[in-house]
Specification:
With about 325 residues, the chain is mainly alpha-helical. The protein has 2 domains: about 220 residues, HUPs (Rossmann fold, 3-Layer(aba) Sandwich); about 90 residues, Tyrosyl-Transfer RNA Synthetase, CATH 1.10.240.10. About 55% of the residues lie in helices and about 5% in strands. The chain has a 3-stranded parallel beta sheet. It has a two-stranded parallel sheet with strand order 4-5. Strand 4, helix 9 and strand 5 form a beta-alpha-beta unit. Helix 3 packs across helix 13 and helix 4 packs across helix 8. The longest helix is centred in the C-terminal third of the chain and has 30 residues. The radius of gyration is 22 Å and the shape is globular. The structure holds tryptophan. Tryptophan binds next to strand 1 and helix 8.
């Protein structure tokens, strides 16, 4: 049997190039070597999203994203977290094996506490328990399926460490019940620059969307920040945000030719932006159509998610039974 790879796409809005290169594309490639499970952690989003209709839509968007980019729901398992009640059962059990101090040290929680302190507010102001125990729910997502590898961005590394820590604590008590997962972090695409050169992120407002209409892709591409070198000036390709994105989409020959042109002089940033835009269109135009068609057919998406949940629960239920037996509750 193939080892299990599991990855969650948090429903936070339409995907951008940073999501695509950092997480979506590497995840899509997993289906070859692993039994791949892809899911939408909608209950994680509930720690912040406060509008039911919006959460539902965001979940559809995330599902449509995976499928438009090429996941075949007949071959892989794609499901919605909230369709798997065992996740919550396991989350409670795991929370009894999670040191509170471990969660106190979680970066995501600490960042909000630090903000509160800096602003002179009470330290737990605006922090709900769901946000505090977010890493435990994530551990349950992972451990419920006996996942061997979990591809994530660098920002999730600590969550994976917490998952492993909790699983080891559990196994120390009951023997080898849970599979200890490995994080799979792809160094080379870790940070994709946004149009201002900082890491591409929705919170920096510097993203290039992948499924937006062409004019909404062209606009941010045109705004990619460059220095003021003239076309004839030699340039360092490693020091150019356009090139940093282009290299992930063009083929090796095209990248080599561009690199030479940067170094020799003769490259105009405006023309390079236009080329990047055309390359993005060539890469995503068909996928955008598919994405939009899927979003217009929520019933079809529901069917896909239901089928996925059924397959996912078939993997989860023997593992859950083992855990219940180990701790001594009703099986
Ligand atoms: N916390 C992840 C994120 O913000 C989403 C997530 C939830 C996840 N559960 C997971 C990712 C399990 C991988 C495995 O991106």
């Amino acid at each position: 049997m193939k080892p299990i790879a599991l990855t969650g796409l948090k429903p936070t809005g339409p995907p951008h190039i940073g999501n695509y290169l950092g997480m979506l594309k590497p995840s899509l490639e997993l289906a070859e070597k692993f039994q791949a499970l892809y899911f939408i952690p909608d209950y994680h989003a509930l720690t912040t999203v406060r509008d039911g209709k919006e959460l539902e839509n965001l979940t559809y968007q995330a599902t449509a994203t995976w499928i438009a980019l090429g996941l075949n729901p007949d071959e892989v398992i794609i499901y919605r977290q909230s369709d798997i009640p065992e996740v919550f059962e396991l989350a409670w059990i795991l929370s009894c094996f999670t040191a509170k101090g471990l969660l106190n040290r979680s970066h995501a929680y600490k960042a909000i506490v630090d903000d509160n302190i800096a602003a002179g507010r009470e330290e737990d102001k605006n922090i709900n328990i769901g946000l505090f125990t977010y890493p435990v729910l994530m551990a349950a997502d992972i451990l419920l399926f006996g996942s061997h590898v979990v591809p994530v961005g660098l920002d999730q590394q600590q969550h994976l460490e917490i998952t492993r820590d909790v699983a080891l604590t559990f196994n120390n008590t009951y023997g080898d019940v849970l599979t200890i997962p490995e994080a799979l972090i792809r160094e080379e695409v870790m940070t994709i620059p946004g149009i201002d050169g900082r890491k591409m992120s929705k919170s920096y407002n510097n993203v290039i969307p992948i499924f937006a209409p062409p004019n909404q892709v062209l606009k941010p591409v045109k705004r990619i920040v460059t220095d003021s070198k003239r076309p004839e000036d030699p340039k360092d390709p490693e020091d150019c945000h356009i090139f940093a994105i282009y290299r992930h989409f063009a083929n090796a020959d095209a990248v080599a030719a561009k690199r030479a042109l940067y170094l020799e002089g003769g490259l105009a940033y405006g023309a390079m932006k236009q080329e990047l835009f055309e390359l993005l269109e060539a890469t995503f135009a068909d996928k955008r159509d598919r994405y939009n068609a899927l979003l217009n057919d929520p019933d079809a998406l529901d069917k896909i998610l239901e089928k996925g949940a059924e397959k996912a629960r078939a993997i989860a239920s023997p593992i859950m039974a083992k855990v219940r037996k180990a701790v001594g509750v009703s099986i």
